Please model this.
Amino acid sequence: MKTYTGPTVFGGSMTIACPDWCVVDHAYWDDKADDCFHKSAVLEVALPRDRANYPAPVTPPLLGAELSLHSTCVIPSAASVWLQLSEYKADGLELDVAGVDSLLAELDRYRDGLAKMRGLLAAVDTELRNRR
Model:
């Protein structure tokens, strides 16, 4: 477990323990030990190349998520998953466990529909190739 000893909001010093999943270098950011956030690595969904094999447009990832926890708050609402919806930090959602469960159900529905669409695409592709 890594720890960070740093200044506090009111000028003192404090040591905090980071969760195993925290990737923040609190010393680099000179975080206030009693008012900072532990953050996980970002999980991202990126666009694939298109069918002509052109690179995807240079854009931020299609979707990103990271776990976040306030350094000293012990209530459950202190932890959340931040779902990043665009390159702008304000374009996002702060989700609790129920929100993540709802998103996972929606992603499952989307994946099932996309898998069916892929099957239809493969059938059409095969049919068109056999016509040649």
Remarks:
- The two ends are 63 Å apart (CA to CA).
- The longest strand covers residues 63-70.
- Residues 97-130 form the longest helix (34 residues).
- Residues 75 and 99 are 17 Å apart (CA to CA).
